[in-house]
Design a protein that fits this description.
The protein is mostly beta strands. The chain is about 0% helix and about 35% strand. A 5-stranded antiparallel β-sheet has the order 1-7-6-5-4, with no helix packed on it. A hairpin with a 2-residue loop joins β12 and β13. The longest helix is centred in the first third of the chain and has 5 residues. The chain is globular and about 55 Å long. The protein starts with a strand and ends in a 9-residue tail after the last strand.
């Protein structure tokens, strides 16, 4: 596709899942850092910036004149080793309904991400900053990644499947069912050096906004009042949710194994490996549409990965609470030192939206504040030292003094 999209395109502000819950936690948390300005709740709506004086993140905004960006905060002095001096947070583009699943293509030197409700994928070219529609329709894709051979992996809400785009341009369906039952709505996926792929399967695609509800009688359409076939191609809207929310491994042979159960990590979302692939981190989010399971608590879990690909020694890595504010995690990525970079959705507690950075022991060492809810992140750029952040309607980026671990 060649349709170019400009930074000046605007979309109405949307209510993201669980945003209402986050809003209901009370008034905005008061910040202890004087650089943080929180507007009181009121009829004017949430604030659009978080720094004082107010900051314009667009291309028309004044340049950041500080040696260190005021919205990159070192909670522990060790984070100063990872924050890149004289590097400002930049908003590269805005115009999505809900931006998700950023992934970096090293060979093509471009960023690809999903705009789930608009049923499309977009691409940002590093050479000139141009943004164009990359793939439409996208099957309401959510998470994207690239494997060790440079092939794009996409999690499709609408079609309830995992797709790999081959180097010749063809597409391969890697998984659409488990033990004969249709998947829910694959959310995020990561590649392993052994050729396997690991992915999460929560129920968030079973809604009108990001996919298609269940057929009448299914968990997300129990009354049958919704018509899941409206606006869809033939064959869509006939499935009902059949599986709990699990994590799976696709073996190079094609076999699909369940590696994490709903009882262990309900409503699994983002996931990533440690740099040595000996640990797997999995985010647990809140309940999705029609979800009758235990429901996640917005926290982050870690497992040891055995030689037989069996997971063990599950631990709570972080509850993602900061100053009494729930910084709901979503997408996660590891750097080469094993630090975990975690997107943060704090709802109307604007100064807590962005990215949290934890050391391998689970200690919060740094934060990146954004003026929008952050859904997912990835490392990219030719040196893999640029953090890309898909935040609600926009894409942000900042250079850091480390490199991302693993491809995509």
């Amino acid at each position: 596709m060649t349709d170019q999209l400009t930074d000046t395109q605007q979309r109405p502000e949307l209510s993201r899942r669980h945003l209402i819950a986050a809003m209901g936690t009370g008034a905005l948390a008061m910040a202890t850092n004087p650089a943080l300005a929180q507007a009181p709740p009121g009829p004017i709506g949430p604030p659009s910036t978080i720094t004082s004086p107010p900051r314009d993140f667009s291309r028309n905004g004044a340049p950041t004149t500080y040696f260190t960006d005021p919205d990159i905060l070192a909670i522990d002095p060790v984070f100063n080793n990872y924050a890149q001096p004289n590097s400002a947070i930049q908003r590269l583009w805005t115009g999505a309904l809900w931006a998700e699943g950023p992934a970096w293509n090293a060979q093509g030197r471009y960023l690809v991400w999903s705009d789930i409700p608009n049923n499309r994928q977009l691409r940002w070219l590093e050479d000139d900053g141009r943004v164009s529609i990359f793939r439409t329709p996208s099957g309401n894709s959510n998470g994207n990644s690239f494997d060790f051979q440079g092939r794009q992996l996409s999690c499709e809400h609408l079609n309830r499947r995992i797709v790999r785009y081959e180097l010749d341009g063809s597409a391969t369906v890697l998984a659409d069912n488990f033990e004969g039952k249709k998947l829910n709505s694959p959310n995020d996926i990561v590649a392993h050096p052994d050729g396997s792929y690991w992915f999460t399967d929560p129920p968030y695609g079973g809604q009108l906004y990001e996919g298609a509800p269940d057929a009448a009688g299914g968990p997300s359409n129990t009354s049958g009042r919704l018509n899941p076939r409206l606006g869809q191609i033939a064959g869509i809207g006939t499935a009902k949710r059949e599986l709990p929310t699990n994590c799976y491994r696709i073996d190079p042979s094609g076999r699909i194994d369940r590696v994490v159960t709903e009882e262990q990590v309900p409503d699994p979302n983002g996931l990533c490996f440690s740099p040595d692939f000996k640990k797997l981190y999995v985010v647990s989010t809140g309940k999705g549409p029609g979800d009758t399971g235990p429901g996640g608590k917005g926290d982050l879990h870690v497992f040891d990965v055995g030689a037989d690909n069996k997971l063990g020694n599950q631990k709570l890595f972080s509850d993602c609470m900061l100053d009494g504010v729930k910084c709901g995690p979503d997408g996660i990525r590891s750097d080469v030192d094993g630090n975990l970079w975690v997107s943060s959705n704090a709802g109307r507690a604007v100064g807590y939206n962005g990215v949290q950075v934890f050391n391998p022991a689970g200690k919060l060492i740094g934060r990146i504040r954004l003026p929008e809810v952050c859904g997912n992140i990835c490392f990219g750029g030719p040196k893999r030292n640029r953090l890309f952040m898909a935040a609600s309607q926009s894409i942000y980026a900042v250079y850091v003094n480390t490199q991302g671990a693993g491809p995509g």
